[in-house]
Q: What sequence folds into this?
């Protein structure tokens, strides 16, 4: 009996997709979206042009994939910083500190790809992605505040939605200030002070 052993088409990939996307993040960081060419991505990602198009698509498709990978990574780390501490104040302070520390990490571009590069891209899908990411971040913060209400750390009438947006805006502000060169030490001090302001009782 003859066995039907199908042979794989083409040669196996000689590169790591995840690693290539990580390299693409750095390419877009260094040149911005408009400044990046396919040649830049070919060199920066270490992928031949035919394989780049076949596996990742054009520049726009690569950028969208970069955004998804970057946001998932950042989101997971931010959620850990927010939900790991049992105390609400430590949670909010830890979330803001994480944003400062990731935006001022040595050896990487200052700021955040989602705040400093992506908003400048004139593309409806990119803008929708950023809006959804912002809503997802605010929802996580709301959830943490509600946990604080359940634990009796803040009163039941605490303005959860408004304060969640406030914290998200503070995180973005700290990140943008890192992008323009504000020292990490200054930003970490401001993050601690901002936490105390956020948790002040509701004014009547």
A:
């Amino acid at each position: 009996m003859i066995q039907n052993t199908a042979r794989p088409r083409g040669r196996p990939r000689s590169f790591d997709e995840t690693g290539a996307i990580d390299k693409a993040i750095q390419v877009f960081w260094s040149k911005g979206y408009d400044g990046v060419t396919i040649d830049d991505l070919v060199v920066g990602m270490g992928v031949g042009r035919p394989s780049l198009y076949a596996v990742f698509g054009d520049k726009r498709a690569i950028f969208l994939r970069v955004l998804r990978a970057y946001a998932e990574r950042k989101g997971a780390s931010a959620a850990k910083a927010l939900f790991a501490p049992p105390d609400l104040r430590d949670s909010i302070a830890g979330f803001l500190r994480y944003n400062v520390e990731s935006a001022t990490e040595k050896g990487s571009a200052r700021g955040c790809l989602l705040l400093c590069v992506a908003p400048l891209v004139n593309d409806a899908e990119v803008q929708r992605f950023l809006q959804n990411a912002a809503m997802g971040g605010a929802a996580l913060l709301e959830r943490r505040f509600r946990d604080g209400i359940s634990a009796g750390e803040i009163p039941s009438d605490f303005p959860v939605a408004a304060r969640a947006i406030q914290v998200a805006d503070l995180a973005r502000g700290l990140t943008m200030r890192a992008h323009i060169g504000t020292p990490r030490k200054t930003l970490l001090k401001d993050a601690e002070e901002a936490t105390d302001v956020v948790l002040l009782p509701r004014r009547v």
